[in-house]
Automatic annotation (TrEMBL), chain A:
It is a multi-pass membrane protein. Its cofactor is FAD. The lineage of its organism: Eukaryota, Metazoa, Chordata, Craniata, Vertebrata. It comes from the Eukaryota. SUPFAM superfamilies: Ferredoxin reductase-like, C-terminal NADP-linked domain, Riboflavin synthase domain-like. The gene is CYBB. It comes from Ursus americanus (American black bear). This is NADPH oxidase 2. Its main location: membrane.
From TrEMBL, chain B:
The lineage of its organism: Eukaryota, Metazoa, Chordata, Craniata, Vertebrata. Component of the phagocyte NADPH oxidase core complex/cytochrome b558 complex, composed of CYBB (heavy chain (beta)) and CYBA (light chain (alpha)). Component of the phagocyte NADPH oxidase complex composed of an obligatory core heterodimer formed by the membrane proteins CYBA and CYBB and the cytosolic regulatory subunits NCF1/p47-phox, NCF2/p67-phox, NCF4/p40-phox and the small GTPase RAC1 or RAC2. Interacts with NCF1 (via SH3 domain). Interacts with SH3PXD2A. Interacts with DUOX1, DUOX2 and TPO. Interacts with NOX4; this interaction mediates superoxide generation. Subunit of NADPH oxidase complexes that is required for the NADPH oxidase activity that generates, in various cell types, superoxide from molecular oxygen utilizing NADPH as an electron donor. Subunit of the phagocyte NADPH oxidase complex that mediates the transfer of electrons from cytosolic NADPH to O2 to produce the superoxide anion (O2(-)). In the activated complex, electrons are first transferred from NADPH to flavin adenine dinucleotide (FAD) and subsequently transferred via two heme molecules to molecular oxygen, producing superoxide through an outer-sphere reaction. Keywords: Cell membrane, Electron transport, Heme, Iron, Membrane, Metal-binding, NADP, Oxidoreductase, Transmembrane, Transmembrane helix, Transport. The keyword Calcium does not apply. It comes from Ursus maritimus (Polar bear). One of its GO terms (molecular function) is heme binding. This is Cytochrome b-245 light chain. One of its GO terms (cellular component) is NADPH oxidase complex. Belongs to the p22phox family. The chain crosses the membrane at residues 12-30, 36-55, 103-124. It is found in: Cell membrane. Residues 136-194 are annotated as: Disordered.
Amino acid sequence: MGNWIENEGLSIFVVLVWLGLNVFLFIKFYDVYNHKPRYMYSQKLLGFALPLARAPAACLNFNCMLILLPVCRNLLSFLRGSSACCSTRIRRQLDRNLTFHKMVAWMIALHTAIHTIAHLFNVEWCVNARVNSSDNLSVALSNLEDKPGETYLNFARAKIPNPEGGLYVAVTRLAGITGIVITLCLILIITSSTKTIRRSYFEVFWYTHHLFVIFFIGLAIHGAEKIVRGQTAESLKVHNPEICGKDPSAWGKPEGCPIPQFSGNPPMTWKWIVAPMFLYLCERLVRFWRSQQKVVITKVVTHPFKTIELQMKKKGFKMEVGQYIFVKCPKVSRLEWHPFTLTSAPEEDFFSIHIRIVGDWTEGLFNACGCDKQEFQDAWKLPKIAVDGPFGTASEDVFSYEVVMLVGAGIGVTPFASILKSVWYKYCNNATNLRLKKIYFYWLCRDTHAFEWFADLLQLLETQMQERNNAGFLSYNIYLTGWDESQADHFAVHHDEEKDVITGLKQKTLYGRPNWDNEFKTIAGQHPNTRIGVFLCGPEALAETLSKQCISNSESGPRGVHFIFNKENF
Amino acid sequence: MGQIEWAMWANEQALASGLILVMGGIVATAGQFTKWYFGAYSIGAGVFVCLLEYPRGKRRKGSTMERCGQKYMTRVVKVFGPLTRNYYVRAFLHLALSVPAGFLLATILGTACLAIASCIYLLAAFRGEQWVPIEPKPKERPQVGGTIKQPPSNPPPRPPAEARKKPSEGEAAGAAGVSGGPQENPVPVIDEVV
């Protein structure tokens, strides 16, 4: 049985605390609106729908405050960098920012649903009370402010019956209009953020997601009209709802109670969201400022099968292994920023990214860089590029382990290009102080097309290691998962040759998928009592598999081998 | 945005709208709001839209992730031919379906969402997109014996090696000679291959 707590403990703790706060806020505010004397008459008018609407409203305040924070990437990078003193575990938590962002988003959707449903009941009952189709007390309460000197409780002032009355309230009240608009924005954001749309049509996702600006503005002014009403404190002193509520027809008359007075609750949401909105604004300003800085493309390399490499230079650019940047090319699109992993090592004097041409923007970039032309391009013809970042990822932690397993699936191998290059440079500089002693590298690939640019790097490393008589430092395994019958013959015939028929490397290519259980057990056997970092950049399914393997192959207790799983994702 | 297939987003939006229509309809019907029958309509329309939109169409480029269990609805949706293939029809259908739900506050959000989905479908139709069903590829059964032109001339059971020596060596090959032609087996062979 593995050490599940080692891998997942802190994440689970954070999620439980967050859920706990949600539940606490829900119950607390439900209780306030259910029992406080101030809201007694409001409750009489609205029933359970009042506290049922206010409770999710409080949770919404909390979650809308949280949702902007995980996407303040510069802030997170700063926290990561400054927590170099803190353990790797804290920093790993910060890598799960997008998962947290999505969880909070779903919670917002849930609470929006509860809030909306409760308000639908509210509106229906309020309008009914206004047009006298309700009990005496509700009708009496709704008539308040018909005469001068009174303050209203029922926000439906016009005497229009349902269902038109409800629709009228929704479009004439600020809360109604803002409510409908921001809920629509939320729905559009959610439908364009599904995995299909996000992975295949990034631009739709990117632009639609910016509706969050309208969402937050609408949210801030949603409560401005103060239609959540309660009896004023002064009124409560002279008019006790429990006693006076029994005879509403006597209100205002000398023998009865004085007319109750009401006031609206001031809007609270802005207090919750103003700080994160400010932080996010700063975040975007930083991005804008960075984009104004000059980035020069020093080299463009076209690799086979729709991959290009851009080598760039920027003053003051500092990176760590496996980080990513956001890139904008105004010539292709003035607004879009796209994320790419850096494939160069920090020791090089330029930084590079490898881009696969899959969509509109990448195709536009391909053409803008003149890759479709055969002849040599002049440097001045290359387009202007803006770069934001670099942003931290899990790969930075590679060097803090003694032994690592690096797994890259398909194009997910890019962060590891950076790591391996950096390893090579450190080796060249004779860094015997290198904590990293052994790398197990797995590259899972569907077909041979993707090998080209990476094979060169591996060849270089292979030669380098042989020269230094440390061929065992890097053990790499390339798995070709898309082989077919016709290729199989070819492989079988050339099996005994010295160099691999596909890659030209000394280590042979393997076919099919790796047997992870075997791999983990072998590695655990070879490195007892070590913390082994497992780094993956690849699909979800593989992440699940590796995560489970890490947990089941780690020994419980502080001694013994521990596999720590780190996943890279965008 | 040349390579975007708007129908993919329209599909997600329409599916979400269906769910919202159902939810709003349930609220109106269960709460017995005034003119709650609009809510009942909304539930029906919502369910219909969900069923229609559940099977994802095939993308023009790349592979498409099927929704869980969508193959049953794919068969049904396919039956209607051009009515479900054409996105203009879908756009107008959704627009028409969304109108009655607009009479109640509880379901008006569904109306708005479905109307937006309708607009995106209109855009998709305008760009010539079509709904193509995702069908499983028929598995190619490997042809047994397809490449065998001549049956083997020396099938097992074979007599021991001495008996199999070539006639040029002049050994007594006996009845088990190997000079071409089918083997005469000393023991009758029963073919057990099914």
